[in-house]
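User: I'm writing a tutorial on reading structure tokens. Could you give me a worked example: one chain, its sequence, then its tokens, then a sentence or two explaining what the tokens reveal?
Assistant: Sure. Here is the example chain.
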Amino acid sequence: MMGHENLCADAVFTGYTHPGGFAQFTTSDEQFSFVIHSHYPDHQAAPLLCAGLIGFRAYRFTNQTPLIGIYGFGAAAHILCQVAVHQRRKIFAFTRPGDIETQTFARSLGAFWAGGSDQIPP
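And here are its predicted structure tokens:
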């Protein structure tokens, strides 16, 4: 579908619907691949392979807007929050009502505001 590998009606995912995922070498379509430089240790590169890609697909549509609202603050959001803060953009993180732990985590990563989805941000 329009070159979007994640929207393929007959998608096959290595390690999920197709055996593998822990192989030393594999093949992939160059159109949907990118280099992860060897100076990144495995524990820093690994999150980029799923949460980083999922979040980046959405993040790129924000262009250069200075204010970004994120609904939910899971793996993709916490990576994007750090990217946005680095770019001097303000993140408004909406979590489940009463999820103080996640709201605190969002603020620790630089979110401008973090609160429940039942709250109105400043």
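What the tokens reveal: Residues 5-116 form a domain with the Rossmann fold fold (CATH 3.40.50). The longest strand covers residues 90-95.
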